[in-house]
Write a structure and sequence with these properties.
By secondary structure, this protein is mainly alpha-helical. The protein has four helices and no strands. The model has no long low-confidence stretch (mean pLDDT 90). Keywords: Membrane, Transmembrane, Transmembrane helix.
Length: 83
């Protein structure tokens, strides 16, 4: 259980650091913050599979992938001028 707590603490610290960085560079779009947090979650859990070993993360993964795809789709459509 301590392994999961350590992993979640490290993930939280990484997300906070990147969120502060986005604030410093002046990012104002909420979708950017959410997208970066989702990407950090997947990168960290790929590098440290300890969290996945002890917890069923599949429903969370599916939900985050759906949210990420939606955000990217809306952003691409916005860039193309469709939305």
């Amino acid at each position: 259980m301590a392994k999961i707590d350590t992993g979640l603490t490290i993930l939280t610290i990484i997300i906070v650091i990147f969120t502060v960085f986005l604030v410093i560079v002046g990012e104002s779009r909420p979708d950017a913050y959410i997208s970066v947090s989702i990407l950090l979650y997947f990168v960290y859990t790929a590098m440290d599979p300890g969290i996945r070993r002890y917890a069923n993360m599949r429903p969370l993964d599916i939900g985050l992938i759906i949210v990420f795809i939606f955000i990217v789709m809306v952003r691409v459509l916005d860039i193309l001028g469709v939305v």
